[in-house]
Structures are given as C-alpha cells and as structure tokens.
Design the sequence.
C-alpha cells in the first residue's frame, strides 16, 4: 500500500510518520507514534474512548483519517499533565474515584474537558450527563464521573 | 476499510474536477457517515475528495429575513451560534440534538442533507422551513431537494455550498430519538411564516415528507389541538427493529402536537 508522510503537532511536539490514506488518526497515534493512551473501544464512533482534541475541540479519533489532520494541533491524554502534576480534570477523576477498569477514562477525561470549556460560566449535573452522551463506561461508573467533572469545573474556574 | 486515493480540495471547482477525474470518487464533508460506511466496507470509492479545506463553505450569516449556513459548518457551531439561537431557535436546538458533542464538532449540515439519511434531523428543517439549497450549479428548493432514501436532486459532481433558511414567525422541532444512536425514530419540524404553514417529518418514512393534513389544519388554527386527532397513515412508513410503522405513525402525531405547543410556547 502506498503511504504518505503525515505531519502534525501532538501535545506540543511536531511529529511525522508514514500513513496509508485509510489510516485513522487513532491508528496513527497508537501504532505509528506508539502513543497508546488513546483507546479504541468500539471503532464505530459510539463509545468515545478514542476522544482527542483537534485544534482544541474534542473529536473521535476513530472516525477521522490521519491525513485529514495533517498540519493540525492534536492533544491526547498524554499531553494533559504537567510533569508530575495532573491536569485538574485528571486530579478530579482520581479524587472522586471516577474510574473502575479505566478503559473509557482517557476518552472521558478528554470529553469532560470539552464539557467544562463549553460551559465555563455554569455547569449543572443534568448538562454533564447530557453532554456525556458520546462516552460509554461499561463498568457503568457514571455517577463518580459526573461528580468528578463538576468538581473539576470548580477547580478549572478558580 | 479498503484503501482509496485521498485528495484534499481547496475550492469547490477543484473538488468537482478531482471527482470528474476519478474512476468512482466520493466527496467527504465531516465524514461522520462516510467513514463508518467505509470501515464496514459498505462502500469502495476509488477516491475520497475531502472538502474540509474549503474555507468559504464555513460560516453563518443572518439578515432581517434569513439565516444562511455554509455547507461545511459543523452542527456544534450552528447549535452555539447566538445569531441562529435568536433568529431561528428551533434550528439551533435541532443542531444540538444530532449525535453527540464529538460528532457535532465534525459533522456538517451540507454532509447531512447530501447524504439524506432517512433518520437525519436536518432534512426536516430544510423542508419544514422551506429553505433553499444553494449548490455549485444552481439553487434547489428544499421541497425538491430530497428525492428518496439516501437520494437527492444533486448531480454527481454538484456540491452544496450553503442553505438559506427564511426566518419563520414560529417554529419548533420535536424528536423521538433512538436511545442508542440519537437518530430520529420520528422527528417533526413545524413552522409558520413566509413559507406558509409547514409540517415536515423525518425518521418515519424512507425520506423526509410534508404532512399535508396537519399543514391544512394548522393553517386554520396553529394550535396543538388542531393536530392531535390527525392520524398519519402507516402504509409507507419504515419498520425496523427499533419501531414498527404503526408506532412511527403514532409518534408523528405526538411529535407534531408537542412541536406546535413548543412553537407557541
């Protein structure tokens, strides 16, 4: 199969790797760059485990071609913490025990940051639950995830 | 996914000529339907021509009588637009009911109407508001645009550029979403304004359609009581694992009644 060099910024670093035209962004991240923090849960754009940010907006990286992202700015779960200091959303997930098996967690955290950014001024539980509709937790641990997002909203506003 | 040639166009002209050069090319807008279709190997185009680099297809303009939305404008942008929320709140609300937040960041209005999924939301707004679809070749009335299941009036190399929605006096959209996919099992868009009294139904049949009995009744009196006893014939409606034709017919009346109440609210 023919490949093309695809370049983008991932977590602030310029990266380049060969990709087929049909290579999905999530494959490019996991298989070409070895960044396995972004998970593939369903591969049918339902579960949200593969959520990353492109130019600041959460998207499902299993439903976009790497070539569509050429030249763009990508943030993955690996890019959130500052050294040993967790991002406030990661810290809130830890504090509130917002994960059980942890498989959905990278996507949940990336999606949750989008929820807080879209609702900077005020955020209630109903909105969090509605806006989590694209992320599945098959441990069904939603309750603490919602708590964590509301707590992080406070921390991120502070 | 089968492999394909990937082409990124920077203008609609370039996109159309790349499609003409391709053996069996396909335009891609946000890719929220096309990519899942390719992954399931339900399509095998020789070329995928990405419209994502055509900047002048993105944006919203509102004047005194209409809202114009560029074909490549994502649902999230329409949903969050203060101008759309003010001019046609039902349209902003509809955009926020499509898929989920990540899908709404990628999926576009032009892609949605060009694909014409029988359960898509936007076709009901295009027909329900009497919008006009502008393409690289012509203008097509909303009523003429959707021709059948996954079929539109578009020619092979014709691209939707923008959709112009006349601002109604009243409008509302009510949707009974599939609990898993959020696609409309039935969605009903009602409006009253410069394009008359309109009731457009999506999800129920193979393609969006106008409910003329309800339109006639609402034309006399725009009140939910006017539609509550009007039954939708289930003869041509869809039956699948999610809902029978009979149930969808019932939902058409329920959603219409709620939409009228919301429009009057």
Sequence:
């Amino acid at each position: 199969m023919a490949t093309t060099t695809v370049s983008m910024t991932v977590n602030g670093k310029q990266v380049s790797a060969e990709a087929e035209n049909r290579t999905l962004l999530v494959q490019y991240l996991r298989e070409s760059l070895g960044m396995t923090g972004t998970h593939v849960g369903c591969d049918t754009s339902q579960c949200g485990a593969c959520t990353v940010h492109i130019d600041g907006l959460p998207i499902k990286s299993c439903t976009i071609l790497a070539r569509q992202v050429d030249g763009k700015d990508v943030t993955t779960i690996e890019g959130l913490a500052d050294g040993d200091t967790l991002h406030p959303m990661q810290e809130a997930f830890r504090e509130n025990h917002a994960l059980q098996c942890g498989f959905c967690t990278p996507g949940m955290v990336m999606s949750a940051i989008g929820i807080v950014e879209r609702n900077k001024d005020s955020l209630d539980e109903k909105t969090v639950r509605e806006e989590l509709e694209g992320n599945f937790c098959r441990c069904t641990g939603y309750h603490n995830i919602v708590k964590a997002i509301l707590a992080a909203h406070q921390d991120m506003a502070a | 996914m089968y492999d394909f040639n990937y082409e990124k166009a920077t203008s609609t002209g370039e996109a159309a000529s790349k499609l003409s050069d391709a053996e069996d090319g396909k335009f891609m807008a946000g890719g929220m339907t096309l990519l899942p279709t390719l992954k399931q190997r339900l399509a095998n185009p020789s070329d995928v021509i990405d419209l994502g680099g055509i900047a002048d297809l993105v944006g919203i303009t509102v004047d005194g009588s209409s809202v114009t939305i560029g074909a490549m404008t994502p649902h999230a942008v329409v949903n969050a637009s203060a101008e759309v929320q003010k001019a046609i709140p039902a349209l902003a609300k509809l955009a926020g009911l499509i898929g989920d937040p990540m899908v709404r960041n990628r999926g576009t209005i032009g892609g949605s109407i060009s694909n014409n999924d029988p359960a898509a939301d936007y076709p009901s707004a295009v027909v329900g508001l009497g919008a006009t679809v502008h393409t690289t070749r012509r203008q097509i009335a909303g009523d003429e645009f959707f021709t059948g299941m996954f079929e539109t009036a578009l020619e092979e190399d014709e691209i939707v550029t923008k959709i112009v929605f006349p601002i109604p006096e009243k409008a509302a959209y009510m949707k009974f979403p599939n609990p898993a996919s959020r696609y409309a099992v039935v969605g009903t868009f009602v409006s009253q304004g410069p394009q008359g009294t309109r009731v457009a139904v999506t999800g129920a049949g193979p393609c969006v359609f106008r409910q003329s009995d309800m339109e006639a009744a609402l034309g006399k009196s725009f009140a939910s009581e006017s539609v509550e006893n009007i039954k939708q014939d289930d003869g041509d409606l869809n039956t699948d694992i999610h809902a029978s034709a009979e149930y969808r017919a019932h939902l058409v009346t329920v959603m219409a009644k709620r939409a009228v109440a919301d429009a009057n609210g």
In short: The domain at 5-50 of chain B is CATH 3.30.43.10 (Uridine Diphospho-n-acetylenolpyruvylglucosamine Reductase; domain 2). Chain B has three domains: 5-50, 58-166, 170-264. The longest strand of chain B covers residues 184-193.
